Amino acid sequence: MTLDIDFVRRQFPALSGDWVFMDNAGGSQVLSRVADRISDYLLTSNVQTGASYAPSQRSTERVREARRAFAGFVNAADPGEIVMGASTTMLIRVLSEAMTGKLHPGDEIIVTNTDHEANIGPWLKHEGRGVVVKFWRCDPETLELDLGDLKALMTDRTKLVCVTHASNILGTINPIAEIAAVAHAGGAELCVDAVAYAPHRAIDVQALQCDYYIFSVYKVFGPHFGVMWGKREKLLELDNIYHYFFGKDSVPHKLEPGNINYELAYGSIGTVDYVEELGRMAGATAGRPAIEAGFADIAEQERAITARLMDFLESRNSIRIVGRTSSAIADRVATVSFTAGERNSKEIVDQVDPAFIGIRYGDFYARRLVEDLGLMPQNGVVRVSMVHYNTLEEVDRLVAALEPAL
Known about the structure:
Layout (H helix, E strand, L loop, with lengths): L4 H6 L9 E2 L10 H13 L9 H21 L7 E4 L2 H11 L9 E5 L8 H4 L7 E5 L10 H7 L4 E7 L11 H10 L3 E5 L11 H4 L3 E5 L9 E5 L1 H6 L24 H20 L6 H27 L4 E3 L13 E6 L4 H8 L4 E2 L1 E3 L4 H6 L8 E5 L6 H14 L1
Parallel strand pairs: 1-11, 3-4, 3-5, 5-6, 6-7
Antiparallel strand pairs: 2-8, 7-8, 9-10, 10-13, 12-13
Helix pairs in contact: 2-10, 3-10, 10-11, 11-14, 12-14
InterPro entries: Aminotrans_V_dom, Cys_dSase-rel, PyrdxlP-dep_Trfase, PyrdxlP-dep_Trfase_major, PyrdxlP-dep_Trfase_small
Organism: Aurantimonas aggregata
Keywords: Pyridoxal phosphate
């Protein structure tokens, strides 16, 4: 591993304070370079895009630069496949609305009970139009999604499968390419919520073979902003949800009603630039190789800190890890949830707060999973969600605070 943890932590001003931040799945800390970019946009190029005068042309180019940056980040074939918006929740709602013309009474959508509600609720809205929504449920004991169960749910009326790349509670990494193969074999499209995956691993949408892929930049060291990738041919098929004079071929703009937040788009480039810099520091060439190398170092750092936490949790007989117990890079991200018998999860977190460590309890908007597991009466799970800027020393500090709480 070549990750320079001291360099990493210097990039995040908030880390110089007293708090340990382990609620990153709710929102990571922000890079100073991101804030600098936002400030620079607002103070030097804050005009509407698309005009002929020079400041507007500069603003336009800065927004295009954001599309190019995120196209590289997810390995898209075309920057025009990048749709930007306020958040994953809003972008999936945009996608759901834009799919109205493609979905007819009797058509079927499959969602999972392990997803954040952002990738469930918008699709349930179509039930009012006669669309059938089916749930692909995880095994209540193993908490795994079985591909055989998905195949059993598929019919010739299945138009869309919706799944998370990594659960924001379980931390489990799902086999998206395999799920895509099942969906496509049945004539359906695949929509992936990648919010809980994007901060942790390199994304390659071409290799994943999904049709839509969405994540939130504020979980990836940036501002409150979201990015959706879609295959160009699929985006062209979607309804225009902007003004009537935007044609169906106006991609991606027909899916960005009211225009995007320009300063956040430009600021978000800093997140891509940061990961690429990590990769260059590891010896990779600029561009896609550096992004992949940067995430390789990120993944190894997170494996180490996850293993340290898992070792402690597994040593306690009262603890149930809600998700895979493996800390292997291929198996999970550094989001670890647990319960302590029937104890109220809030009580545990309340006892950790005085140690200036930010963790969390609850359902994390994946309420259907928590309800199905019968955990709502005890305030859901305790969740420790780490990223690469967390350290072994911080995990040890958390363990010291958890021991008396457990």
